[in-house]
Amino acid sequence: MILFNDICGGLISLGWIKLIEFERPKVIDGTLIQGLPGLGFVGKIAVDYVIEILKLPKFAELYSDYLLLADGRAGVYVDLKGILDLPRYEFYLFKEKNIIFLAGNTQPVSWAQYEIAEKVIKYVRELGVSRIITLGGTVTPSRKKEVYTATTNEKLMDMLRKYDVKKSIGGAITGAAGIMLGISKLYNMDGFTLLGNVGKIYPDVEAAKAVLTVISKMYEFKIDFSKMDKIIEDIKIKSKAAGELTALIERERTEREREKETRQYYV
Description:
This protein is of the alpha/beta class. 36% of the residues lie in helices and 24% in strands. The protein has 6 helices and 12 strands.
């Protein structure tokens, strides 16, 4: 096991970053696919699912005081078994396809997004990665589950058209999903994002499936979606029941108000 304690490439920095390697893999013209917590938890669900289904091995972890709890406080996460861990990034290897999946239970604080992104990019470049893909969620008027993209160059946009991915026009991509690609462009690396449009259901597992379907087609690997489909169906049933209950409560409230308005009093 190798430990690296880095302080921003020799520049003065208050940040603490520790990368722990369990082994050092090599990929050939590899791809990093990042899925972190964000809008609809789309990216995180997609990457966590493929890691679980394909049983991919973890080869490294990254820790930093820039990686805080979801509410912005410093602390540790405690799992259902009572075991605690610091917030972290985790690197998993899909050797057959030369893909490294980057998972995590948090995003860097806003003022450290650049530093953490550059640290990750420098590290995976050493391993042979030449392309960065980020996964996330977006909000659109469409109710149909669609996937949108923004790329670092026009050649990638042309390539993505055959996967029925729609061009994201204007606006901004915030957080790690955007910054990772911005930094990768400075390093002359190919990069693009795949964003599933998020609906009313949160977290949006269906949007995560749409994004993951594009990835599986692009890199030609099969993935069993049966577990994800069951979760989607369960969520829809519960969402429908909740909607019906809300409608019932609203009708009863309206009827009570009407009764009050029509009630007459005599003296």
